[in-house]
Design brief:
The protein is of the alpha/beta class and 155 residues long. It has one domain (2-147): HAD superfamily/HAD-like (Rossmann fold), CATH 3.40.50. The protein is 35% helix and 25% strand. The chain has seven helices and ten strands. It has helices at residues 34-42, 59-66, 76-85, 101-106, 121-126, 134-142, 147-153, and strands at residues 2-5, 9-12, 15-18, 25-26, 29-30, 47-52, 69-72, 91-95, 109-113, 129-131. The strands form three sheets. The protein has a six-stranded parallel sheet with strand order 7-6-3-8-9-10, sandwiched between helices. A two-stranded antiparallel ribbon has the order 1-2. A hairpin with a 3-residue loop joins strand 1 and strand 2 (9-12). Helix 1 packs parallel to helix 6 (134-142). The two termini are 21 Å apart. Bound molecules: magnesium ion. Residues 19, 21-23, 95-97 line the site of magnesium ion (MG).
């Protein structure tokens, strides 16, 4: 997906990286409304990834269920390193935790979400935009053009 934000330039997002716990799931369960939005997003980008430390051991199952390519990334730096392999200039990432800080510093379009598990303020600082939920984040990305995002970030 391509869009321009006045004062910030052009974005050509071809890959979206998701964090798992607290982002796609709450208490290990996929948040209602996520699967259909990920399906819709699949039509708009080249690839979708799940980067997780997989602390609950359900990463592979959820990746398969949602059609995401799984990368097990146990540390903040692992997430950043994997993103660099994916041409981070063309990546968006959505996450909520301290472990996402380095990832957010690396990708072109970092997005933080606040939900039942909360979000790390330092991760939010590295994000370009913060949404109250993954559903809001995905709905904003799926707008064509993404008017909500542009309205918030234009300079
Ligand atoms: Mg998380």
């Amino acid at each position: 997906m391509k869009f321009s934000i006045p004062g910030r330039g052009d974005f050509d997002i071809q890959k979206v990286i998701f964090d798992l716990n607290g982002t796609l799931t709450i208490d290990g369960k996929v948040i209602e409304g996520v699967p259909e939005r990920i399906q819709a997003l699949r039509q708009r980008v080249l690839a979708l990834f799940l980067f997780t430390g997989d602390t609950q051991g359900n990463g592979a199952t959820i990746a398969k269920e949602l059609g995401l390519e799984l990368k097990v990334t146990g540390h903040a730096q692992d997430k950043a390193n994997e993103a660099r392999e994916l041409e981070s200039e063309h990546c968006a990432a959505i996450g909520n935790g301290s472990i996402d800080i380095e990832l957010f510093k690396t990708v072109k379009f970092p997005m933080a979400v606040r939900q039942a598990e909360g979000s790390c303020p330092k991760a939010e600082e590295e994000a370009l935009i913060v949404f109250p939920s993954i559903l809001d984040a995905l709905d904003a990305l799926l707008q064509e053009p993404p008017k909500r995002i542009i309205a918030t970030l234009r300079r």
